[in-house]
Amino acid sequence: MLPLLLLTLAPLLQDDPAKDLKSKDFAVRLAAVQRLAKEEHPKREKLLIGTLKDDDWEIVETAAVALGEVGSGAAIDSLVKLTLEGPARRVRRTAAEALAALDAVEGFDGLAKKVSGKHARHACEGMWSLAAKVDGQVSTKGIAKALKSKDGAARGAAAHAWIVVAGDTRAEALEELLGHEEIRVQAAALDGVSQSRDPACFPLLLGLLARNKLNDVLERRVVTACRSILADADEGERGALGDQILLSLTMPTDHAMQARTARLTGRLASKELGLVDAARAVESLESALGSSEAKTRAAAAGALGRIGTDEAVDRAAKLAVDDADANVRLIAMQSVVRRRPATEDATLDLLAERIEKDPDARVREEAAVALGVKQQERAVKPLAGALDDQEWGVVACAAVSLGKTRQSTGLQPLVDLYARSEDWRTRGAAVIGMGHMYEKEAVPHVIAALADEEVIVRRSALEYLVSLANRRMEPEVEPWEAWWAESGPRLQLFDPDEEAARREKYGYERTPAEIYAGLDVVVFESRGDHIQNVLEDLKIEHRMTQQGQVAEAELHARAVFVSNCTGEMTDEDVDQLAWFLRVGGYLFGSCWAVQETIERAYPGVVRRLPTRGEVLDNVFATPCVDDSPYLEGVFGPDVTPMYALEGAYLIDVVDPERCEVLVDSPECADRHGGGNLAAWFTAGHGVVLDSVNHFEEQGLTRATWLKKPAERQAFAVDHMGLSYEELRELLDDRAWKQSGEIAKKVKDLSVFRLITNFVRQKRITGDG
């Protein structure tokens, strides 16, 4: 009987949660809230409602979650107030979700009454969170009023909410919102379509693609909305909607509209999604492929690669040979390689023919890059032939690819290239190619290159030898020859592609210091930005260079190069970077670097967007790609990034088939004509990433309008991803009284995390 009695009395023997909620100890209060969420208590709801006023935001959030699960109508007014006045966005969102669980309609109506007040934006965001639960059940008068708010963010949130709650009138609401003067409102409406997935909106989405001038931040959201609708439709409805796309593709109103629709078709008919019939999509693309406008044909060529069926790839292969425009041939060739790498004979034949006969050097370069496939013996001959090309870029890309084939027959052509070349760029590429072979016979030739007259060639040889020996010695021939004589006979060369443990150690749980350990990071010192300060704070080793001295920086393919804003360089500096990219280097730039560094080193993909004046602003940013590994862990789920634009150069995407925008901003597009904030592309064997903001001057450093510690704390949580645990550790710090002081301790590392994801990929592939 005693054990049974103890079990019965156990809840009474514990401390009363009501007492614990008054404790000064955060852990005690949190545990009390968690108990109330799970256990009966005569004053449970009243206690939880009272806890919504706790000083700790995590406890408030936990209490709101509990009320959504065990509360009643008595909690609605308090949750409405928390949705409007909560200290952080994630707290307000949690409160709105609790309202949705208790009584979504009453909660929505309570928020709708506040759209004209000082919490207009929070009211609209709350309605947006509730919208899915009240579709067609509530009045939209409050939302219509919010669209006239002085707060732009409130107008955007209202547009999103209106679309989601509109029910049978959704298409009419979308038509009205797409006619709004603000891109931000239009973009938010498209986000609402993505959430509601209403097929009634589909014709309006396709009509938007036909707009004479369509900002690309809207085009991206049209694609996402169409994808959401098709994914939610049944098979019959999906087919009918797909027919609308294909019909619009064959009946263009202008070249730009046809290019946009071709890109949409390629994405939706892709092997990965399969939302539009692939065979009919390829057939319908013929209209765009026959366009007199090269950009339209390029868009269609890129779509073929996304579709990826045999029919689509065969059509792209023909285009890669026959089209009169070099860029169309290039995109078509890349579409083939995307689905049929050079391990297949048909692709190898195409690339071999292009590397020999194409009149455009960029096409020949990219053909050479694509031929760099491991264990493909048939690639050796065309690559070796390309070592005689008249353009150094083609020779450099071919030399590196020759090494990547890992074929012993490729060694002698590289040795011969090194011996005969008077150009440091091709000699350096020959050394890098030898390093990629992982052949013992190549090592003595790499050691001999330590005596080269050009420092960049010597450094390329040294870095390969260091990676081989796992030790660093003087960059001179004699000590390395001695090492090779002693170690060479017993040294085993392991293919980096087969070192699973090596790849795994750069996983997302690693600290930046671990990911960057041993990596050669070269920073270009400039006037506007200072990523070196971020690196120093994180204890990441790096080297500095400056204008006119990039040659002395001894760049090599295993390095990464960061160009601070303003990025102004001499022509010789640019030549160094152009080579660096083609042999496999990674280039990261900020702000002005898009024009002063990137466009000069690798033109034709991105450039500076002309603006009406100097861009001085703070704008909300949005990750605009759902499945990119480069965005993994960059922004938290409740974080709305804010980019500080200090005289920023915005990104104009010249070639949308070669460049992917990762982060954009409809708000920025409204104010300055363009909203592309971060974008990347491949360049030869290398990679380029540009971000319009500064690596360092972000976050609280520039949030000078914040006056109170609580405002700065909310900013850090909402826009910088500061966790509740981190906030508690700093809560009593007097530095919160000044933005400049707390910025030294709480840093916005979102752009750095973006860079780190690219670095991680470089390390995983064995190129760093």
Structure write-up:
The chain is of the alpha/beta class and 768 residues long. It has 5 domains: 2-165, Alpha Horseshoe (Leucine-rich Repeat Variant); 233-340, Leucine-rich Repeat Variant, CATH 1.25.10.10; 341-493, Leucine-rich Repeat Variant (Alpha Horseshoe), CATH 1.25.10; 517-697 and 749-764, 3-Layer(aba) Sandwich (Rossmann fold); 701-742, no CATH class. It contains 40 helices and 12 strands. The strands form 3 sheets. Strands 2-1-3-4-12-11-10-7 form an 8-stranded mixed sheet, with helices on both faces. Strands 5-9 form a two-stranded antiparallel sheet. Strand 1 (521-524), helix 33 (531-537) and strand 2 form a beta-alpha-beta unit. The longest helix has 24 residues, at 89-112. The radius of gyration is 29 Å and the shape is globular. The model is unreliable at 1-13 (pLDDT under 50).
